[in-house]
Amino acid sequence: MAIQRMDNVLIVVDDLDAVIAFFVELGMEVEGKGPVEGRWVERVIGIDDVRQDVAMLRTPDGHGKVELATFHTPAAISAEPRNAPANTLGIRRIMFAVDDIDDVVARLRTHGAELVGHVERYEDIFRLCYVRGPEGIIVGLAEPLR
Q: In terms of DSSP H, where are the helices of the chain?
């Protein structure tokens, strides 16, 4: 049997409200937010005594989702280096298609985001960039040119 779809990507954060605001500014919608704890979550993630707050955000088309979690217990563990470059092993970014890359970058800057490099054109297909947001989260932005 094949997979049905990719459901969501989890990002563990310290400041849940700041990261929610960043993704809402990007254009995502909050689907739900609340506490998560209990034996069932401990068994799923393999950590005892879990108490966390979780928010689920979705893209406007309803197909893509980002889950954000902040751990109250046990404390989250920081990855090193905090602002890892693009060639670091592991998940480096989430890419979003946008209508107007310049507008999105300007709006995200109001939430402390900075360009990782530059906005560049890939042939006559896309304008692309990486933006580093709160807590070092990198999102890729792709503006279709056709």
A: 16-26, 39-45, 101-109
**CA distances, 134 to each of 10, 11, 49, 63, 83 (Å):** 15, 12, 27, 24, 10
**Bridge partners (DSSP) listed for residue 70:** 53
Burial class (CB in 10 A: 0-12, 13-18, 19+), 81: exposed
Strand-pairing partners, residue 56, are: 32, 67
Calculate mean pLDDT across residues 96-125: 96
Q: Phi, psi at residue 95, to the nearest 5°?
A: -100, 135
Q: 29-38: buried (b, 16+ CB within 10 Å) or exposed (e) per residue?
A: eeeeeeeeee
Q: How many CB atoms lie within 10 A of CB 48?
A: 10
User: From residue 56, how far is each of 24, 31, 84, 117 by CA, in Å?
Assistant: 11, 5, 25, 29
Summarised one tens digit per residue, pLDDT across range 51-95 is: 999 999 999 999 999 999 999 999 888 877 778 887 888 888 999
Report the C-alpha gap between 21 and 103 in whole angstroms. 16
